[in-house]
Write a structure and sequence with these properties.
Radius of gyration: 26 Å
Distance between the termini: 32 Å
Number of strands: 37
CATH superfamily of one domain: Alpha/Beta hydrolase fold, catalytic domain
Shape: globular
CATH class of one domain: Alpha Beta
CATH topology of one domain: Rossmann fold
Helix content: 10-25%
Number of helices: 13
CATH architecture of one domain: 3-Layer(aba) Sandwich
């Protein structure tokens, strides 16, 4: 009887209707260039202030939540799992600068860092500089950056963004009394540089519409910002400007940078009323960065065709490129990434066949050696080295199976001390349970593409294991094979994690980057697909278990591969994806567009227009089956405007022929980097991982 009643009761309850995907209004907008017409049905979504736009974004969010409600408990479990691995009451390795030891620490349950210092010795009383947790109260988003201490150690300039638009307001604080001065510098990059007089600041303002960093101003403490003097304005819309101080503290330096060209201006820090002098005039295609030591500047540059860069030097008084002399020669197979300068040593950071190397050299030429690293795939790079007169080099080492370590090595004795090793707060964690390797896929044009892999030692490689393939592949930005505690949530559930080092990054040197940009950009996309097919052929996974992920320009990569080879992937996560390439690159009013011409091309040039149109994900959506997809956006994103992923999803909904999942989740409070705070960002990672794990049947 009870069973009959239970069945009857169950039948009498109305079933919940299946959520209906939002359908964006079609309002054709025609754009014409070079005699070619493109119709954009969802152009209207560009109006951030429109009630209709906000309603549509909310409908998409509601649809996502309604379809994934069954995973909410798992998302929370995954978030707590990721959070539990992080040491909450953590402290940075102290570093010394100008008589003070600086320490950043976190306390249990708090989202943001606390900045402190100790005078002369770590045993001295702690001085509280900033508690970002208190400062963040009342804000949905908070970012503190650019803390700059005056030469006399009494004042601190700092930048705050509470909108996630990367438009920072700079304030100045007395470190003796805690007073926040009335000085208020708006719409800046957040960073400021002190002159030697302890009252003059140089800082960078942004164009309020395009957000291009284009003006360097001088501010005098205690004066109104309206009286600040414009020191330099970058008129070329393809360049950004910034200002910093040399490690020697002798010079204040203004930099102008585009994708292919750099230029610097210098001013003695003790002469804030003086005039900046051009270091060496810009020459298109000439890139250089400068480092001061003694009476010379050392320059890392691609001058004279040094594609992988070389080091040159020049005296302080005659800095034009015509006077530069070679210091470290160019090598075709080794990329010089950076140099660190000390009183008795200089340190060169290199990349050789994708692996980072650190070379220590004495200025007197008596000794030169590389720090020893023996892993098959790893990451090593100099860390915070602000002290000039020291024998200690601080660097970071980690690998996909090894938590990061901060290590001090005495450059004279070569003795190393691990100052800090990342703690994985999980009693079950054992690095020996994981394996990493580097394999090489053959691209369709015969080029070998490196792939870094990590997996649990018990994970089979027989085609049955799920695999998440990640890549970025633009701007010469290298995704190194680093350790990740959040990634363990995938590895412990049987996933293999792969980083495809596709062309467009700089993993194999500058030529690797040049082979994946402009009119060779398609190499990035086909490399990713060829890596996927290699991983399938080698038995690491299968199309039923292969997932792909990328964000920003990596989201563009996702957009292209799902147009070209949708059948290869079970699911795809495209985070804040740059998918409407032609429209964005053709609109110089959109933030950051003009500085991108050397990366993607200017569509005013017909050749570039036709090429980017041939791969732009939004322009190439078609009536076909697509994999399951989660697309994310940030309403206040300053780099990829929210409307790109929104329009893309709307068009995919209208044209795709399958019943696979398609979700758009827009963070209505955050921008390009997602949520602020130490742990809030983990919730977004948990959301993305849950989407993948649910498709794989691992959400319990």
């Amino acid at each position: 009887l009870c069973a009959i009643l239970a069945v009857s009761c169950k039948k009498s309850q109305p079933s919940m209707p299946e959520p209906i995907p939002p359908k964006a209004t079609v309002a054709p907008h025609v754009m014409e260039l070079h005699g070619d017409k493109r119709t954009d049905d969802y152009y209207w979504l560009r109006d951030r202030e429109s009630e209709a736009v906000l309603t549509y974004l909310k409908e998409e969010n509601d649809y996502y939540f309604s379809k994934t409600g069954h995973t909410e408990a798992f998302q929370e479990t995954l978030f707590q799992e990721m959070k539990s691995r992080i040491k909450e009451d953590d402290t940075s390795v102290p570093y010394k600068r100008n008589g003070y030891w600086y320490v950043t620490r976190f306390t249990t349950g708090k989202e943001y860092p606390i900045y402190t210092r100790h005078k002369e010795t770590l045993k001295a009383p702690e001085e509280l500089l900033f508690d970002a947790n208190r400062m963040a109260e009342g804000f949905d988003f908070f970012d503190l950056r650019g803390i700059s201490i005056s030469p006399d150690n009494r004042l601190a300039a700092y930048g705050v963004d509470t909108l996630s638009r990367r438009q920072y307001n700079i304030r100045i604080k007395s470190l003796e009394t805690g007073e926040i001065f009335e000085d208020f510098l708006e719409n800046t990059t957040g960073s400021a540089v002190w002159a030697a007089d302890n009252k003059t600041l140089f800082y960078t303002r942004k164009d309020p519409e395009t957000l291009r960093s284009n003006q360097i101003y001088k501010h005098v403490l205690g004066t109104d910002a309206s009286a600040d003097e414009l020191i330099y304005e970058e008129k070329d819309e393809t360049f950004n400007a910034y200002v910093y101080k040399s490690k020697s503290r002798k010079f204040i330096i203004i930099g102008s940078i585009s994708t292919l060209t750099t230029e610097f201006r210098i001013l003695p820090a003790d002469d804030p009323g003086g005039t900046f002098r051009v270091f060496s005039p810009r020459i298109r295609g000439l890139e250089y960065s400068i480092y001061h030591y003694g009476n010379h500047f050392y320059i890392v540059t691609n001058k004279d065709g040094a594609r992988n860069f070389k080091v040159m030097r020049v005296g302080e008084d005659q800095t034009d490129a015509s006077f530069w002399e070679e210091f470290i020669a160019h090598r075709e197979d080794v990329l010089i990434e950076d140099i660190e300068i000390f009183k008795e040593y200089y340190v060169v950071s290199e990349r050789d066949r994708g692996l980072t190397r650190i070379q220590v050299n004495r200025w007197d030429g008596k000794e030169s050696y590389y720090l020893p690293f023996d892993n098959e795939t790893y990451v090593a790079y100099p860390y915070v080295n602000l002290d000039f007169d020291t024998e200690e080099l601080r660097y970071v080492y980690n690998a996909m199976t090894s938590p990061y370590s901060v290590i001090d090595v005495n450059m004279r004795t070569k003795k190393s001390v691990i100052q800090k090793q990342q703690e994985v707060m999980d009693p079950e964690f054992d690095a020996d349970n994981y394996r990493s390797e580097r394999v090489w896929a053959t691209a369709r044009d015969g080029v070998k593409i490196p792939i870094s892999l990590v997996y649990h030692k018990d994970t089979p490689k027989d085609g049955t294991s799920p695999l998440l393939q990640y890549a970025y592949g633009s701007y010469g930005s290298t995704i190194d094979p680093f350790f990740s505690t959040t990634r363990l949530s995938l590895l412990d559930r049987g996933f293999i994690y792969a980083i495809a080092h596709v062309r467009g990054g700089e993993y194999l040197g500058r030529p690797w980057y040049e082979a994946g940009k402009l009119l060779q950009k398609k190499n990035s996309f086909t490399d990713f697909i060829d890596c996927s097919e290699f991983l399938i052929d080698q038995g690491y996974t299968s199309p039923e278990h292969l997932f792909a992920m990328g964000g920003s320009a990596g989201g563009l990569l996702m957009g292209v591969v799902v147009n070209l080879k949708p059948q290869l992937y079970r699911g795809v996560v495209a985070a804040v994806p740059f998918v409407d390439v032609v429209t964005t690159m053709g609109d110089p009013s959109i933030p950051l567009t003009t500085g991108e011409y050397d990366e993607w091309g200017n569509p005013e040039d017909k050749a570039y227009y036709q090429y980017m149109k041939s791969y732009s994900p939004y322009d190439n959506v078609k009536a076909q089956e697509y994999p399951n997809m989660l697309v994310t956006a940030g309403l206040h994103d300053s780099q990829v405007q929210y409307w790109e992923p929104a329009k893309w999803v709307a068009k995919l909904r209208a044209l795709k022929t399958d019943q696979n999942q398609l979700f758009l989740h827009t963070n209505m409070e955050a921008g390009h980097g997602g949520a602020s705070g130490r742990f809030n960002a983990l919730k977004e990672t948990a959301r993305e991982y849950t989407f993948i794990l649910d498709l794989e049947g691992k959400v319990l």
